Amino acid sequence: MKLIIGNLKMNLNYYDIGKYVDYFKNKNYSNVFFAPSYIYLSKFVDSGLNTVSQDVSIFENGAHTGDVSSIQLKSIGINYSLVGHSERRKYYNDSDFVNKKVIRLLEQDIVPILCVGETLEERDDGRVFDVIKDEILTAFSKIKPEFLEKVIIAYEPIWSIGTGKVPENEEIEEVINYIKRFIKDKFSFDVKVLYGGSVNNNCIKELEKIRIIDGYLVGGCSLKCEDFEKLIDSIS
């Protein structure tokens, strides 16, 4: 069964979130996870929904105003967290901190969902594999392979996120195959790889033809309950 994560990003107010949670809390989707803003995490957890943090601090605790630590996430029942999302890398220089964040998550037995992907310029320059390899090696630096086996990777071509532009199936399959082979050869474990980047009801039928995709990281389509439910129900 494929893993489906709805990344709500910085959307929906408290009233909207209440209606959203009520809509999904009795659906019994064991393979569907939700990544709301920090302030709503407990609301999802308390409603019995599989819940993912959108990010984590590099610090364990202390005077770091605005940060949320892996210890705090674990204490409210969070067992999965995104890390290295392209928006965090672009606006907050997160590429410099991904390794520390992965370490913090693994220390608390929280599964890191590591986001990797190339810009359009990098793809046009033929550097897709080099970029992704560097992102993986940076994130995994100085971590023993036996701990890394928990990690899930989400391949999100940056030029596709929120643009409605989806790579050709052959391009997606080529990159996911590369990631799986690289992880197996370098770290000796089989990794689950999700696809993200303008995943919606217009393209999911075509994406589902790529059998090696282990699941999806969904952005905009996850914001509307009916749209997200339709997407979930169309994924085998």
Structural class: alpha/beta
Mean pLDDT across all residues, rounded? 96
Question: What string gives the helices and strands in order?
Answer: EHEHEHEHHEHHHEHEHEH
Main beta sheet, described?
A: 8 strands, parallel, barrel
CATH architecture, by name, is: Alpha-Beta Barrel
Shape: globular
Tally of contiguous helical segments: 11
Unreliable residue runs? none
Query: How many domains, in number, for the residues?
Result: 1
Give the DSSP E fraction (strand runs of 2 or more residues). Answer: 5-15%
Which superfamily, in CATH terms, is the homologous superfamily?
Aldolase class I
The strands making up the biggest β-sheet line up spatially as: 1-2-3-4-5-6-7-8
Query: What's the Cα radius of gyration?
Result: 17 Å
Helical content (DSSP H or I, runs of 4+): 25-40%
N-end to C-end Cα span: 7 Å
| CATH topology heading | TIM Barrel
**CATH class assignment:** Alpha Beta
Topology, number of strands:
8
Describe this structure in words.
By secondary structure, the protein is an alpha/beta fold. The protein has one domain (3-233): TIM Barrel. It contains eleven helices and eight strands. The chain has helices at 14-24, 41-46, 70-75, 86-92, 98-107, 120-124, 128-140, 145-148, 169-187, 204-207, 225-233, and strands at 3-7, 32-35, 50-53, 80-83, 111-116, 152-155, 193-196, 215-218. Helix 7 (128-140) runs parallel beside helix 9. The model has no long low-confidence stretch (mean pLDDT 96).
Q: Any descriptors?
A:
236 residues, alpha/beta, TIM Barrel, eight-stranded parallel β-barrel, 11 helices, 8 strands, 40% helix, globular
